Amino acid sequence: MRVIIQDNYDKMCKWAADYIASKIRAHKEKRPFVLGLPTGSSPIGVYRELSRMNREGELSFANVVTFNMDEYLGLPRTHDQSYWYFMHDNCFDHLVDMKPENINILNGMTDDPERECREYEAKIASYGGIDLFMGGIGVDGHIAFNEPFTSLASRTGVRNLTTDTRIVNSRFFGNDPEAVPSQALSVGVGTVFDSKEVLILINGHNKARALAATVEGAVSQKWTCSALQYHNGAIIACDEAACGELTVDTYKYFLDIERAERL
Question: What total of structural domains would you count in the chain?
């Protein structure tokens, strides 16, 4: 596992965007580069920087296929809190050469959620799997909508959202938890960790316990993020504020090892 500690949120996002861009540029295969993407506040700065690179001719998305992590069940694409809307508003609409047919987002209005999830898994497999999956985590360490105690081997499926998650997300729904859908479609923990590389963004003091559980804690379904410890291509990009619960030795180790790699 690599842990990249940056001074602040903006530097964390710049590092992550540069890393993703380097992987896309280095991809020389005829098949597309397959990129997994999240929603939420953490990746917005990354999307902003990737969009800038693309507009200024530094990075092409012409040979990139994307798969998003999740979508609320029962929200149409046109709803301003759907993740389809979020991704187009914050990312896809700002990429000059992103092909619409290469964008994959779970359909929250499907009349057969289980079939939708099976077909999503099959489509990922048809591309040979995901090359790099970027994600964020919640304050309780959940990845995508895989709440605590979700199986670490889980696949894409329907997820029931906890009261805590609905309360946290209610800030986008007029501060009314009841307005937040109670279910979502989500890739599984196993789906994410089948990717060749997993890049997780963790920023802010409110994520400090989650970062410590991810890096130093026991692997447990209680903290689905802890499964990163088993992934050979796991990278965490975080800011200083998120490091408050790490032990001093762990914090110094990752600063030292990354400094050594740059020399």
Answer: 1
